[in-house]
Specification:
Blueprint: H1 10-20, E1 26-29, H2 34-42, E2 47-50, H3 55-70, E3 78-81, E4 84-87, E5 92-95, E6 98-100, H4 104-115, E7 120-121, H5 123-131, H6 141-152, E8 163-166, E9 170-173
Helix pairs in contact: 2-6, 4-6
């Protein structure tokens, strides 16, 4: 999606898409302010690519999105951390037996962190595993997603117990975070 389109703007289309589907969405636009990126990602875009972009980079990002959404599931399908249940088979998250809404990108990040509980994942690790590209040192989309995930799983954003930020290292999903 582009932010500037004839008729409806890209954010309106994105809002409609997210209400109807969890298809992967890449924002491809010449609007490249940090505010535009944050708004696009917070509204549910899975990636935000500023124009101009090299065709091979765009193709790699498209392939990464397709891999994330089409990969066969292996290993443990369900993770339980106190009252938080993450079911990878159903791609659902429940907190205190209530389903919690997640965008596709938020869910994928939560699953990656939770399935690596007890291990610090750097932004480089996260980018490589979720997007299939190297971290450029500038993109803050992972930080934005973490800030949106924490309250959804009952983690206090000011004093997180489940998803900890490890300064200069990355993020850690705490194995024994106890009851949420």
């Amino acid at each position: 999606l582009d932010l500037v389109m004839p008729g409806e703007d890209g954010l309106s289309v994105l809002r409609w898409l997210r209400s109807a589907s969890d298809l992967p969405v890449i924002m491809l636009t010449s609007n490249d302010t940090s505010i535009d990126r944050v708004v696009g990602l917070e509204m549910g875009a899975d990636d935000y690519v500023p124009k101009p972009v090299q065709p091979r980079v765009l193709l790699a990002r498209i392939r990464a999105q397709l891999r994330r959404n089409d990969k066969p599931e292996t290993g443990n399908q369900r993770l339980v951390f106190g009252e938080l249940v993450i079911d990878n088979g159903a791609r659902s998250v429940a907190l205190k037996e209530e389903l919690v809404e997640f965008t596709s990108a938020e869910y994928d990040l939560l699953w990656l962190l939770a399935s690596n509980a007890g291990r610090i994942l750097s932004r480089e690790d996260i980018f490589t595993q979720l997007r299939g590209i190297e971290y450029d040192g500038q993109d803050r989309s992972i930080d934005v997603r973490i800030s949106r995930i924490r309250p959804k799983i009952g983690d206090d954003p000011d004093s997180p117990r489940m998803i900890k930020t490890v300064r200069s290292k990355g993020y850690l999903f705490v194995k024994d975070s106890g009851t949420v």
